[in-house]
Each structure stands twice: as structure tokens, then as C-alpha cells.
Write a structure and sequence with these properties.
This protein is mainly beta and about 210 residues long. It is built from no helices and 15 strands. The radius of gyration is 16 Å and the shape is globular.
């Protein structure tokens, strides 16, 4: 996907306080800034997940040109041969700030961050809104393209889900493995989607018909 991005403009506004994003990826290049996905109104209002040039990751939300959320890992992600499953589970209504955003890598929650700015309680993030807001998968709006492969990119638009919705631990090897049948605890939500389920198909497999374009 080194020069490719997928794009969708939501037609509905759902909860901007509760959502879960899950995807599987294999990095094709390290030591470079690469955006995996962003939901973007403009440069000062967006939410994104990216790998940094030092191979940490950052999940952040920018509102009115100010950082409302920034989580940058201490851990480095330099394995270009294996797959990572990333699950980002958000519920800003939670009273405890560290429960408002939970990030799991291969089923294990990341708790060590070099930068940790959690969103204020009940904050509406820059996501899940109709109008001029656009989803970009594989880039930061035509820049900082992701170099690698992706599979099973899922968005659950109204609930904070556990990583076990998207993967499970192999009882023999102990490795985190993909669940090919994804069943959210409630539903995908109106803006929810599941793409790249079978090869490179951009057709939404969640029954919502939220299909992406290339």
C-alpha cells in the first residue's frame, strides 16, 4: 500500500465517544513515519494512528489545532516479517482516564507510553461524523503512506470492544490468531464496517454497505 489509500465519507453521525478499531498489518518498511489510518476534517481536526520514524506508534486526536489525545508507545515495532493485530477501544464516558482509551497489540494491552495525554471525560473525538469528515486507510490524507499489507480492517462505531472479538490465543502455540468471524458485543453500528476480509476487497462485510473506494 506504499502509494495507495482507501477512502470513505460517512453518511451518518454515530457516537463520537465510543468506538473500536481493529486491523491486522504487516510492515513493509521500518524507520519511517507512516499513517495507518485517519479520520479527517482538516489538518487541525483529525484522529489518527501512525508509526513514527523511530518505530513507536502514536494514537492521537487533534481538535481545533490542539492535541486532545496523544498516546505514544515506549515499545518499538520493528518486525517486518510477522503480522500485528492492533485494537483501539475507546469510551470517553469512563470516569477513569486510562479506561477511556485502551490499545491492544496481539491481544495484550499496551500500558507503557512515552507520551500519555488521555481525552477529557465525555469528549467527542474527530471520528464517526457525517459531512466533510473523511476516513483514509493507508495514509494521512495523501501523505505519510503506510508501506505494507493490511487485512480484516474493522470499525465498530458505538461500543468499546475487547480484543477477543477480533482474535484469540492459540491453545498450542500461545500465538495470537485471527478470528475470521467477527461478532461485536452489540452490533457494528450504523457507520461500522469490515473490509479487506477476503483479499483486497473493499466491499463492507458488516452488512452496512459502507464500501470504500481506492
Amino acid at each position: 500500500m506504499a502509494n495507495t489509500q482507501l477512502q470513505l465519507s460517512p453518511t451518518n453521525t454515530n457516537s463520537r465517544q465510543k468506538f473500536t478499531v481493529s486491523f491486522w498489518l504487516k510492515r513493509g518498511k521500518i524507520n519511517s513515519e507512516q499513517c495507518v489510518w485517519t479520520t479527517r476534517l482538516d489538518s487541525g481536526n483529525n484522529t489518527l494512528f501512525k508509526f513514527n520514524a523511530n518505530d513507536t506508534f502514536t494514537f492521537k486526536c487533534n481538535k481545533s489545532n490542539a492535541d486532545a489525545l496523544v498516546l505514544t508507545s515506549n515499545a518499538l515495532f520493528r518486525d517486518a516479517s510477522g503480522w500485528y493485530n492492533v485494537v483501539i477501544a475507546v469510551d470517553t464516558t469512563q470516569s477513569t482516564d486510562t479506561n477511556r482509551v485502551k490499545i491492544y497489540i496481539n491481544g495484550v494491552q499496551e500500558t507503557s507510553f512515552g507520551t500519555a495525554t488521555y481525552p477529557s471525560q465525555n469528549l467527542s473525538l474527530e471520528i464517526n461524523e457525517s459531512g466533510n469528515q473523511v476516513w483514509y486507510i493507508g495514509s494521512e490524507s495523501s501523505q505519510n503512506y503506510f508501506d505494507g499489507s493490511m487485512s480484516y480492517f474493522a470499525f465498530v462505531s458505538e461500543t468499546q470492544e475487547a480484543p477477543t472479538v477480533f482474535g484469540s490465543t492459540d491453545s498450542t502455540t500461545g500465538e495470537w490468531q485471527i478470528k475470521t468471524s467477527i461478532t461485536p458485543s452489540v452490533a457494528f453500528g450504523t457507520n461500522g464496517f469490515l473490509i479487506l476480509k477476503d483479499g483486497s476487497s473493499l466491499t463492507d462485510q458488516s452488512s452496512n454497505s459502507n464500501n470504500f473506494s481506492l
